[in-house]
Amino acid sequence: MRGVSFTAIVTAMALSMMPAWAAAEPRAGVLPLDVNGELPPQGAKTLSAEVEAGLTSAGATVVSSTELAGTFGGKPKTASKQLAACRDGACLKDLAAKATATHLVRPTVQMDGSDYVLSLELVDGATGEVVHQASQTCELCGLTEAQAMMRSLAESLKDRLASTGTVTVDSTPPGAEVLVDGEPAGTAPLELRLAAGEHTIVLRLAGHADEERRVVVEVGSTAPVTAELTELEQAAPVEPSAPERKLPLGPLGWASIGVGVAAVGTGIGLLILDERPVEYTRCSGIDVDVEGDCRFRHDTLVGGVVMTIVGVVGITAGALLVARSRKAGKNGGDHERRARLRPTLRGFAIQF
Protein backbone atom coordinates (compact mmCIF):
# COMPACT_ATOMS: atom_id res chain seq x y z
CA MET A 1 0.00 0.00 0.00
CA ARG A 2 2.98 2.30 0.53
CA GLY A 3 3.83 1.96 -3.17
CA VAL A 4 0.25 2.83 -4.14
CA SER A 5 0.30 5.96 -1.95
CA PHE A 6 3.62 7.07 -3.44
CA THR A 7 2.21 6.67 -6.97
CA ALA A 8 -0.84 8.75 -6.06
CA ILE A 9 1.37 11.54 -4.67
CA VAL A 10 3.54 11.61 -7.81
CA THR A 11 0.43 11.69 -10.00
CA ALA A 12 -1.02 14.65 -8.04
CA MET A 13 2.27 16.56 -8.35
CA ALA A 14 2.35 15.98 -12.09
CA LEU A 15 -1.22 17.23 -12.45
CA SER A 16 -0.42 20.46 -10.59
CA MET A 17 2.42 21.24 -13.02
CA MET A 18 0.31 20.82 -16.18
CA PRO A 19 -1.54 23.68 -17.93
CA ALA A 20 -5.15 24.12 -16.88
CA TRP A 21 -6.40 23.02 -20.31
CA ALA A 22 -4.32 19.85 -20.49
CA ALA A 23 -5.81 16.47 -19.70
CA ALA A 24 -4.55 14.27 -16.89
CA GLU A 25 -2.14 11.50 -17.83
CA PRO A 26 -4.21 8.31 -18.08
CA ARG A 27 -3.34 5.10 -16.21
CA ALA A 28 -4.88 2.09 -17.89
CA GLY A 29 -5.15 -1.27 -16.12
CA VAL A 30 -5.28 -4.21 -18.54
CA LEU A 31 -7.70 -6.94 -17.48
CA PRO A 32 -7.09 -10.59 -18.46
CA LEU A 33 -7.85 -11.47 -22.10
CA ASP A 34 -11.24 -13.12 -22.63
CA VAL A 35 -10.91 -15.87 -25.26
CA ASN A 36 -13.81 -17.51 -27.08
CA GLY A 37 -12.47 -20.30 -29.23
CA GLU A 38 -9.06 -21.84 -29.69
CA LEU A 39 -6.01 -19.62 -30.25
CA PRO A 40 -2.64 -20.68 -31.60
CA PRO A 41 0.06 -21.43 -28.99
CA GLN A 42 1.15 -18.28 -27.16
CA GLY A 43 -1.75 -16.45 -28.88
CA ALA A 44 -3.33 -15.10 -25.66
CA LYS A 45 0.02 -13.91 -24.32
CA THR A 46 1.05 -12.11 -27.53
CA LEU A 47 -2.35 -10.46 -28.02
CA SER A 48 -2.33 -9.19 -24.41
CA ALA A 49 1.17 -7.80 -24.98
CA GLU A 50 -0.06 -5.94 -28.07
CA VAL A 51 -2.86 -4.37 -26.02
CA GLU A 52 -0.32 -3.05 -23.53
CA ALA A 53 1.97 -1.79 -26.33
CA GLY A 54 -0.93 0.01 -28.02
CA LEU A 55 -2.02 1.68 -24.78
CA THR A 56 1.54 2.83 -24.13
CA SER A 57 1.69 4.27 -27.65
CA ALA A 58 -1.59 6.08 -26.89
CA GLY A 59 0.12 7.91 -24.03
CA ALA A 60 -1.19 5.84 -21.12
CA THR A 61 0.74 4.41 -18.21
CA VAL A 62 -0.05 0.70 -18.30
CA VAL A 63 -0.89 -1.36 -15.22
CA SER A 64 -0.53 -5.00 -16.25
CA SER A 65 -2.99 -7.71 -15.31
CA THR A 66 -0.34 -9.18 -13.00
CA GLU A 67 -0.16 -5.88 -11.10
CA LEU A 68 -3.97 -5.69 -10.96
CA ALA A 69 -4.12 -9.19 -9.51
CA GLY A 70 -1.59 -8.17 -6.88
CA THR A 71 -4.07 -5.68 -5.43
CA PHE A 72 -6.23 -8.60 -4.20
CA GLY A 73 -3.40 -10.00 -2.06
CA GLY A 74 -2.98 -13.63 -1.20
CA LYS A 75 -1.52 -16.32 -3.45
CA PRO A 76 -0.97 -15.39 -7.13
CA LYS A 77 -3.24 -18.16 -8.44
CA THR A 78 -6.09 -17.17 -6.15
CA ALA A 79 -5.61 -13.48 -6.94
CA SER A 80 -5.75 -14.22 -10.70
CA LYS A 81 -9.07 -16.03 -10.25
CA GLN A 82 -10.46 -13.09 -8.25
CA LEU A 83 -9.34 -10.69 -10.98
CA ALA A 84 -11.01 -12.79 -13.69
CA ALA A 85 -14.24 -12.82 -11.66
CA CYS A 86 -14.23 -9.03 -11.15
CA ARG A 87 -16.87 -7.93 -13.67
CA ASP A 88 -19.51 -5.85 -11.94
CA GLY A 89 -19.24 -2.08 -11.59
CA ALA A 90 -18.58 -2.01 -7.86
CA CYS A 91 -15.69 -4.48 -8.11
CA LEU A 92 -14.15 -2.70 -11.09
CA LYS A 93 -14.41 0.68 -9.36
CA ASP A 94 -12.71 -0.68 -6.25
CA LEU A 95 -10.03 -2.37 -8.37
CA ALA A 96 -9.25 0.87 -10.22
CA ALA A 97 -9.00 2.76 -6.94
CA LYS A 98 -6.53 0.26 -5.46
CA ALA A 99 -4.40 0.34 -8.63
CA THR A 100 -4.75 4.17 -8.97
CA ALA A 101 -5.95 3.56 -12.52
CA THR A 102 -8.07 6.12 -14.38
CA HIS A 103 -9.38 3.37 -16.70
CA LEU A 104 -9.55 -0.39 -17.06
CA VAL A 105 -9.36 -2.12 -20.43
CA ARG A 106 -10.88 -5.55 -21.03
CA PRO A 107 -9.67 -7.22 -24.27
CA THR A 108 -11.69 -9.96 -25.93
CA VAL A 109 -10.90 -12.24 -28.86
CA GLN A 110 -13.39 -14.56 -30.52
CA MET A 111 -12.39 -17.13 -33.09
CA ASP A 112 -14.88 -17.63 -35.93
CA GLY A 113 -13.23 -20.23 -38.12
CA SER A 114 -10.14 -18.51 -39.46
CA ASP A 115 -11.46 -15.03 -38.56
CA TYR A 116 -10.40 -13.06 -35.50
CA VAL A 117 -13.06 -10.83 -33.91
CA LEU A 118 -11.19 -8.43 -31.63
CA SER A 119 -12.78 -6.02 -29.18
CA LEU A 120 -11.81 -3.74 -26.28
CA GLU A 121 -14.05 -2.45 -23.51
CA LEU A 122 -12.98 0.78 -21.80
CA VAL A 123 -14.10 1.09 -18.17
CA ASP A 124 -14.15 4.42 -16.34
CA GLY A 125 -12.18 3.85 -13.15
CA ALA A 126 -14.21 6.47 -11.26
CA THR A 127 -17.55 4.74 -11.84
CA GLY A 128 -16.72 1.17 -12.87
CA GLU A 129 -18.98 1.56 -15.92
CA VAL A 130 -18.13 0.72 -19.55
CA VAL A 131 -17.85 4.06 -21.39
CA HIS A 132 -16.61 2.89 -24.81
CA GLN A 133 -16.27 -0.26 -26.88
CA ALA A 134 -14.13 -0.73 -29.99
CA SER A 135 -14.12 -3.84 -32.16
CA GLN A 136 -12.70 -5.02 -35.46
CA THR A 137 -12.73 -8.24 -37.48
CA CYS A 138 -9.63 -9.70 -39.06
CA GLU A 139 -10.91 -11.98 -41.83
CA LEU A 140 -8.85 -14.91 -43.01
CA CYS A 141 -5.75 -13.72 -41.20
CA GLY A 142 -3.12 -15.27 -39.03
CA LEU A 143 -1.91 -14.42 -35.56
CA THR A 144 0.61 -11.86 -36.82
CA GLU A 145 -2.10 -9.83 -38.55
CA ALA A 146 -4.35 -10.15 -35.50
CA GLN A 147 -1.56 -8.81 -33.28
CA ALA A 148 -1.13 -5.69 -35.47
CA MET A 149 -4.89 -5.12 -35.47
CA MET A 150 -5.11 -5.49 -31.67
CA ARG A 151 -2.35 -2.89 -31.19
CA SER A 152 -4.10 -0.50 -33.59
CA LEU A 153 -7.36 -1.00 -31.72
CA ALA A 154 -5.68 -0.11 -28.41
CA GLU A 155 -4.04 2.99 -29.95
CA SER A 156 -7.47 4.19 -31.11
CA LEU A 157 -8.42 4.67 -27.44
CA LYS A 158 -6.01 7.61 -27.13
CA ASP A 159 -8.60 10.40 -26.86
CA ARG A 160 -10.96 8.24 -24.80
CA LEU A 161 -8.25 7.43 -22.29
CA ALA A 162 -7.25 11.06 -21.86
CA SER A 163 -10.88 12.26 -21.98
CA THR A 164 -9.83 14.66 -24.70
CA GLY A 165 -10.93 15.94 -28.07
CA THR A 166 -9.09 17.66 -30.89
CA VAL A 167 -9.32 21.37 -31.70
CA THR A 168 -7.81 22.77 -34.90
CA VAL A 169 -6.99 26.49 -34.75
CA ASP A 170 -6.42 28.66 -37.86
CA SER A 171 -5.96 32.42 -38.14
CA THR A 172 -5.97 34.88 -41.01
CA PRO A 173 -3.24 36.09 -41.32
CA PRO A 174 -1.43 33.02 -39.94
CA GLY A 175 1.09 33.18 -37.11
CA ALA A 176 -1.23 34.35 -34.33
CA GLU A 177 -0.34 33.38 -30.78
CA VAL A 178 -2.89 30.93 -29.36
CA LEU A 179 -3.91 31.06 -25.70
CA VAL A 180 -6.12 28.35 -24.19
CA ASP A 181 -7.85 29.40 -20.97
CA GLY A 182 -5.21 32.12 -20.57
CA GLU A 183 -2.22 29.78 -21.09
CA PRO A 184 0.08 29.97 -24.17
CA ALA A 185 -0.45 26.91 -26.39
CA GLY A 186 1.46 27.66 -29.61
CA THR A 187 1.09 29.51 -32.91
CA ALA A 188 -1.68 29.12 -35.50
CA PRO A 189 -2.22 27.00 -37.53
CA LEU A 190 -2.27 24.55 -34.65
CA GLU A 191 -3.86 21.24 -33.63
CA LEU A 192 -4.59 20.81 -29.92
CA ARG A 193 -5.78 17.94 -27.77
CA LEU A 194 -7.89 19.47 -25.00
CA ALA A 195 -9.66 18.02 -22.03
CA ALA A 196 -13.38 17.53 -22.55
CA GLY A 197 -15.48 20.55 -21.62
CA GLU A 198 -15.68 24.26 -22.44
CA HIS A 199 -12.52 26.23 -23.21
CA THR A 200 -11.75 29.84 -24.13
CA ILE A 201 -9.35 30.31 -27.02
CA VAL A 202 -7.77 33.72 -27.73
CA LEU A 203 -5.79 34.52 -30.89
CA ARG A 204 -3.33 37.41 -30.61
CA LEU A 205 -1.17 39.00 -33.33
CA ALA A 206 0.82 42.23 -33.24
CA GLY A 207 -0.96 45.08 -35.03
CA HIS A 208 -4.32 43.27 -34.93
CA ALA A 209 -7.26 43.13 -32.55
CA ASP A 210 -7.51 40.03 -30.35
CA GLU A 211 -10.14 37.46 -31.26
CA GLU A 212 -11.80 35.27 -28.61
CA ARG A 213 -13.67 32.02 -29.24
CA ARG A 214 -15.43 29.61 -26.89
CA VAL A 215 -15.41 25.94 -27.85
CA VAL A 216 -17.00 22.89 -26.24
CA VAL A 217 -14.72 19.86 -26.60
CA GLU A 218 -16.26 16.40 -26.72
CA VAL A 219 -14.26 13.23 -26.12
CA GLY A 220 -12.96 11.78 -29.39
CA SER A 221 -14.36 14.62 -31.53
CA THR A 222 -12.68 17.37 -33.59
CA ALA A 223 -13.77 21.01 -33.36
CA PRO A 224 -12.47 23.66 -35.79
CA VAL A 225 -11.71 27.22 -34.62
CA THR A 226 -11.05 29.86 -37.28
CA ALA A 227 -10.60 33.61 -36.86
CA GLU A 228 -9.96 36.50 -39.23
CA LEU A 229 -7.94 39.08 -37.32
CA THR A 230 -8.80 42.76 -37.85
CA GLU A 231 -5.84 45.03 -38.49
CA LEU A 232 -5.63 48.02 -36.15
CA GLU A 233 -5.51 51.52 -37.63
CA GLN A 234 -2.13 53.16 -37.35
CA ALA A 235 -2.16 56.61 -35.71
CA ALA A 236 -0.78 59.39 -37.93
CA PRO A 237 2.69 60.46 -36.80
CA VAL A 238 2.76 63.82 -35.05
CA GLU A 239 5.24 66.18 -36.69
CA PRO A 240 7.28 68.12 -34.15
CA SER A 241 6.58 71.85 -34.17
CA ALA A 242 9.36 74.17 -35.21
CA PRO A 243 11.31 75.37 -32.18
CA GLU A 244 10.62 78.95 -31.19
CA ARG A 245 13.47 81.17 -32.14
CA LYS A 246 15.18 82.79 -29.19
CA LEU A 247 17.69 85.58 -29.33
CA PRO A 248 20.67 85.87 -26.98
CA LEU A 249 20.41 88.80 -24.55
CA GLY A 250 23.87 90.34 -25.04
CA PRO A 251 23.82 91.03 -28.79
CA LEU A 252 20.17 92.05 -28.63
CA GLY A 253 20.95 94.58 -25.87
CA TRP A 254 23.82 96.18 -27.79
CA ALA A 255 21.69 96.37 -30.90
CA SER A 256 18.93 98.06 -28.90
CA ILE A 257 21.43 100.59 -27.48
CA GLY A 258 22.75 101.35 -30.98
CA VAL A 259 19.27 101.92 -32.37
CA GLY A 260 18.38 104.00 -29.31
CA VAL A 261 21.44 106.26 -29.68
CA ALA A 262 20.63 106.80 -33.36
CA ALA A 263 17.02 107.60 -32.50
CA VAL A 264 18.05 110.11 -29.76
CA GLY A 265 20.46 111.78 -32.14
CA THR A 266 17.80 112.03 -34.80
CA GLY A 267 15.26 113.33 -32.28
CA ILE A 268 17.61 116.06 -30.98
CA GLY A 269 18.38 117.07 -34.53
CA LEU A 270 14.71 117.42 -35.31
CA LEU A 271 14.13 119.46 -32.14
CA ILE A 272 16.95 121.85 -33.10
CA LEU A 273 15.61 122.16 -36.62
CA ASP A 274 12.07 123.01 -35.49
CA GLU A 275 10.88 126.59 -36.41
CA ARG A 276 14.01 127.27 -38.37
CA PRO A 277 13.43 128.85 -41.81
CA VAL A 278 13.50 126.65 -44.86
CA GLU A 279 16.48 128.06 -46.64
CA TYR A 280 17.12 125.53 -49.36
CA THR A 281 13.92 126.20 -51.34
CA ARG A 282 11.11 128.74 -51.77
CA CYS A 283 12.99 131.42 -49.94
CA SER A 284 13.05 134.33 -52.39
CA GLY A 285 10.80 137.13 -53.56
CA ILE A 286 7.52 137.28 -51.80
CA ASP A 287 8.54 134.32 -49.64
CA VAL A 288 10.98 136.59 -47.74
CA ASP A 289 9.64 138.94 -45.03
CA VAL A 290 10.83 142.49 -44.32
CA GLU A 291 13.52 141.20 -41.99
CA GLY A 292 14.88 139.00 -44.75
CA ASP A 293 13.74 135.72 -43.18
CA CYS A 294 12.00 133.00 -45.15
CA ARG A 295 8.38 132.72 -44.20
CA PHE A 296 8.46 128.89 -44.46
CA ARG A 297 9.56 127.19 -41.22
CA HIS A 298 10.47 123.60 -40.30
CA ASP A 299 7.75 121.83 -38.24
CA THR A 300 9.73 118.94 -36.65
CA LEU A 301 8.83 119.30 -32.98
CA VAL A 302 6.54 116.25 -32.76
CA GLY A 303 8.92 114.03 -34.73
CA GLY A 304 11.85 115.14 -32.62
CA VAL A 305 10.03 114.42 -29.37
CA VAL A 306 8.89 110.96 -30.58
CA MET A 307 12.34 109.97 -31.85
CA THR A 308 13.98 111.16 -28.64
CA ILE A 309 11.56 109.16 -26.51
CA VAL A 310 12.04 106.06 -28.69
CA GLY A 311 15.79 106.46 -28.47
CA VAL A 312 15.76 106.80 -24.68
CA VAL A 313 13.55 103.68 -24.37
CA GLY A 314 15.84 101.73 -26.72
CA ILE A 315 18.97 102.73 -24.79
CA THR A 316 17.35 101.85 -21.47
CA ALA A 317 16.10 98.46 -22.70
CA GLY A 318 19.45 97.68 -24.26
CA ALA A 319 21.29 98.55 -21.07
CA LEU A 320 19.00 96.25 -19.08
CA LEU A 321 19.56 93.41 -21.56
CA VAL A 322 23.34 93.81 -21.45
CA ALA A 323 23.32 93.95 -17.66
CA ARG A 324 21.14 90.85 -17.44
CA SER A 325 23.31 89.00 -19.92
CA ARG A 326 26.45 89.75 -17.91
CA LYS A 327 24.79 88.69 -14.69
CA ALA A 328 23.72 85.40 -16.24
CA GLY A 329 27.23 84.85 -17.57
CA LYS A 330 28.71 85.25 -14.10
CA ASN A 331 26.25 82.67 -12.76
CA GLY A 332 27.11 80.22 -15.52
CA GLY A 333 23.61 80.32 -16.99
CA ASP A 334 24.08 82.47 -20.06
CA HIS A 335 22.88 79.64 -22.23
CA GLU A 336 19.56 79.66 -20.38
CA ARG A 337 18.98 83.41 -20.65
CA ARG A 338 17.17 83.98 -23.92
CA ALA A 339 14.70 86.52 -25.19
CA ARG A 340 11.82 85.98 -27.58
CA LEU A 341 10.96 88.61 -30.12
CA ARG A 342 7.26 88.41 -30.95
CA PRO A 343 4.97 90.64 -33.02
CA THR A 344 2.16 92.61 -31.36
CA LEU A 345 -0.61 94.91 -32.56
CA ARG A 346 1.63 97.91 -31.89
CA GLY A 347 4.86 96.51 -33.28
CA PHE A 348 7.24 94.04 -31.58
CA ALA A 349 7.71 92.99 -27.98
CA ILE A 350 10.64 91.34 -26.21
CA GLN A 351 9.76 88.50 -23.85
CA PHE A 352 12.24 86.68 -21.60
List keywords for this structure.
3 domains; 352 residues; Immunoglobulin-like; Rossmann fold; alpha/beta; 6-stranded mixed beta sheet; 9 helices; 37% helix; 28% strand
Characterize the largest beta sheet: strand count, sense, and whether it forms a barrel.
6 strands, mixed
State the CATH architecture of the largest domain: 3-Layer(aba) Sandwich
Kindly give the count of domains.
Answer: 3
Portion of residues in helices? 25-40%
Q: Termini, distance in Å? A: 90 Å
Please mark out the parts with pLDDT under 50 across 5 or more consecutive residues, or reply none.
Answer: 1-17, 333-337
* Name of the CATH homologous superfamily of the largest domain: TolB, N-terminal domain
> According to CATH, what is the class of the largest domain?
Alpha Beta
Order of helices and strands: HEEHEHHHEEEHHEEEEEEEEHHEE
